[in-house]
Amino acid sequence: MTTSSAPAPAPSTLLVVLNPNAGRKQGREQFMQRVQPALERSGTAFRLLETTSQGHAQSLFQDLVRQPSTPRNDTLRIVVLGGDGTVHEIVNGILRGLDAAPHGADDSRPRVEIAIFPIGTGNAIATSLGILTVEDALERLIAWNTIPLRVVKVSKCLHEGDGTVLSHSWKPHAYTVVVNSFGLHCATVHDSEGYRSMGNARFKVSALKNVLWLKQYEARLDLYGTVQRYDRTSHELVSAVDGSTVPQDEPSMVLAGPFTYLMLTKQASLEPGFTPTPFARTSDDWLDILAVQNVGRGQILQILGAAANNGQHVDNEHVEYYKAKVVELETLAPGRLCIDGEFMDVEAGPRGRVRLEVLPEDHQSQFFVCS
């Protein structure tokens, strides 16, 4: 084992990213007692990268892929001892580094494979894949069987200096692999930072606080192309709109709001039992949309309670569930969007319009996760 503040470009070396502050700060102990012995028994060469602050993992990998000596068409294998935030940083570091790297497109398609040890306060990716314990993660690490980890690009609308909106022009803001939200869920995650010492319980405390002072969030969500919806009668996903019948630059469906709860995600579960988007799949090219529009405290508590009972809320009459590949959000007042636990301020009206789209498989980098 070698320890370094920067990744080694050698493709044969496994990179172990340790976030010592994740979750209950047991990452270093788990690495020394469980992960390191397993890797040494298997004869796997690895380099340990220990993060020191928020954003550190992103900068490490952004620097890595920008190095001219880094092979572009090889496989980069990464073990993460941390939560969703660490994975988010790694994905963003790699993609932003590739965006800025001085090399041709033909050389810019690294395959990135990630094994996750769920020791963070947010472990949605691992939970959605059935990886609930360190033992589960060790089994996946030894087998190293992967599935695609599809990425969502979040972009801001471009406009001229005088404020004129440039129609259908977008500037990438971030890449996400877990959840994007607006309304109650976003407010819950934002306020939960003040209760971080409570571990996962911080989300429940923050949720109850925001339900007590429940707000409705004025916005509209435009869905483009082909759309599926959950049908409560047949209890299955059905075709809602055939995208080929709608002009490409026009929405095929509009959710007018106001929204109490709006979630756009690639993961089925955010924590064991809490399954807000039960039909979401890490590896498919759909963005799952959970929309609850303009309900009161009793109704949202009932919906959240059913969601915490393995996703039974989808049959509630106030819940709308869709699948789309491209959506755009526009708010009527200044707002906030949660993107994998980070927060983006959103201007009101067309100037603040935000676009979310699942990246195609032929994007400049492909991500996979041990399942």
UniProtKB/TrEMBL annotation:
Coiled coil: none annotated. The keyword Kinase applies. Pfam families: DAGK_cat, YegS_C. GO terms for molecular function: ATP binding; lipid kinase activity. Keywords: ATP-binding, Kinase, Nucleotide-binding, Transferase. The keyword Cell inner membrane does not apply. It comes from Mortierella alpina. GO terms for cellular component: cytoplasm; membrane. Residues 9-157 form the DAGKc domain. SMART domains: DAGKc (SM00046). Transmembrane segments: none annotated. This is Sphingosine kinase 1. The gene is SPHK1. The lineage of its organism: Eukaryota, Fungi, Fungi incertae sedis, Mucoromycota, Mortierellomycotina. One of its GO terms (biological process) is sphingosine biosynthetic process. InterPro entries: ATP-NAD_kinase_N, Diacylglycerol_kinase_cat_dom, Lipid_Phosphate_FormReg, NAD/diacylglycerol_kinase_sf, YegS/DAGK_C.
